[in-house]
Amino acid sequence: MMIDLTHTLTTSKEAPMSIWPGHPTLEMTKVATIPEQNANVTAISLGSHTGTHIDAPNHFIADGLTVDKYDLTKLVGRAVVVDVRGKKAREMITWGDMQKWEGDMNEGVIVLICTGWSQYWGKENYDEHPFLDLDAAKKLMETGVRVIGCDTLSPDNVCSPECEVHKVILGAGGMIAENLRGIEEVLVLKDPFVSLLPLKLDNCDGSPIRAIAWSAGDI
């Protein structure tokens, strides 16, 4: 079984997307159609952090790696799901909340933080999600983990302009996948693996991704 962890990129007003304040919105324009040009072609405009996407170190670290330079083997691997769905709006996720999974965290493992907040995607309260404590982010990096994913707009408190959790993870050479969906479905997988591969965008700080998860042996 393969699980799609990706929100649909859409311009629909009936199913709106959540966007970080001030970031570009998605635009899709038909520039050719089958009746007129014998083929459908769409012009697409979006930000590097639109929809389900991944942050490269260069997003906050001036000399950090860009998406096209990052080691792709680090973005496909065994997943550990940290289930913190009991957290309330804007509640901090501490290392104490994550510690029970510490034994499964090590280099090469991708940690997925499941808050259940993807249910609010496109709604006004999506940015009121739980967020990762700075000390928890530091301890997570001490385990050897370098890639995390969250079903929220950010692992940081959106109200905090410093984005310190980003700087800890990206500053350690890590990557952060944001706006994932369906992480709770990964909880039922036996020996889950995840892929968070970006587009090969030259010298870019982030990229939309098609995030998927599966059980080892299924593919």
Explain the overall architecture.
It is a single chain. This protein has 219 residues and is an alpha/beta fold. Helix content is 13%, strand content 24%. The strands form three sheets. Strands 1-13-11-5-7-9-10-4-12 form a nine-stranded mixed β-sheet. Strands 2-3 form a two-stranded antiparallel ribbon. It has a two-stranded parallel ribbon with strand order 6-8. Strand 9 (147-150), helix 4 and strand 10 (175-178) form a beta-alpha-beta unit. Helix 3 runs parallel beside helix 4. It is globular and about 60 Å long. The termini are close together. The mean pLDDT is 97.
Condensed summary:
This protein is of the alpha/beta class and 219 residues long.
Relevant terms:
two-stranded antiparallel ribbon; 13% helix; alpha/beta; single chain; nine-stranded mixed sheet; 219 residues; globular
User: How much helical structure, as a percent, in the residues?
Assistant: 10-25%
Number of β-strand runs: 13
Radius of gyration, rounded?
17 Å
The helix count comes to: 5
Which strand order does the major sheet show? 1-13-11-5-7-9-10-4-12
Shape: globular
Q: Given the helix and strand composition, which structural class is it?
A: alpha/beta
Mean pLDDT: 97
What is the beta-strand fraction? 15-25%
Order of helices and strands: EEHEEEEHEEHEHEHEEE
Question: Sheet with the most strands?
Answer: 9 strands, mixed
Through-space gap between termini: 9 Å
Contiguous runs where pLDDT drops below 50 for at least 5 residues: none
